[in-house]
Amino acid sequence: MTLLYQNDLEFYKANGVFTGIDEAGRGALAGPVVVAAVVLDYEKMIEGINDSKLLTPKKRAQLYPLIVENALDYSIVEISPAYIDEFNILQATLLGFKTAFFQLASKPQYCLIDGKDIHADLKHCAQAVIKGDQLFASIAAASILAKVHRDNLMLAYDDLYPEYGFASHKGYGTAYHAKMIHRFGLSPIHRKSFKIPEVRDREVKKL
């Protein structure tokens, strides 16, 4: 049994059924922020669960269906770029935490959320955990679902807006992405409230 699962079991014994919650895409320039919540079944432990950032895309893709099939419950929520622009990324992420929690059919009593932010409506039943996706299996599982779901969305957007290269950078602020924004302008899925990285004039002229 991994340390992540041990931590989950200790928390479960002390607090009862709970869910782990994490997000993907908070810092991207385009696309939604995606939040996932997972209630693991501790009689069906899944080998290899870890923080999604520490896993290869292939490993995440392998774990995704295993989590979906073996978890007691899960939910995935997308908060749109339009909402992010209107209310800011923090409020969008907090809404995602709240929505993902309340969408769970199993109605767990408690949740562990990766990071340091908790929606006001969850403060009575939630605990924020810095680097929680490296400490709790449930949060790590949520990080995988959120990451894979969002990556798949960005691959679909790459078909709609191939000029931006979403398949390669998934909407994050790479140098190439910045150059394409300066060349083509913002697409409907870009976050208009986010600062676009600067590109040197001579680099723009080369496009």
Features:
8 helices, globular, 5-stranded mixed β-sheet, alpha/beta
Protein described:
The relative contact order is 0.20. A hairpin with an 8-residue loop joins strand 1 and strand 2 (33-39). 44% of the residues lie in helices and 14% in strands. It has two domains: 3-159, Nucleotidyltransferase, domain 5, CATH 3.30.420.10; 162-205, no CATH class. The protein starts with a helix and ends with a helix. The chain is α/β, with parallel strands linked by helices and 207 residues long. A five-stranded mixed sheet has the order 3-2-1-4-5.
Summarize the structure.
With 207 residues, this protein is of the alpha/beta class. It has helices at residues 3-15, 57-70, 81-87, 89-102, 137-160, 166-169, 175-184, 201-205; strands at 18-24, 33-39, 73-79, 110-114, 126-129. The protein contains 8 helices and 5 strands; from the N terminus they run αββαβααββαααα.
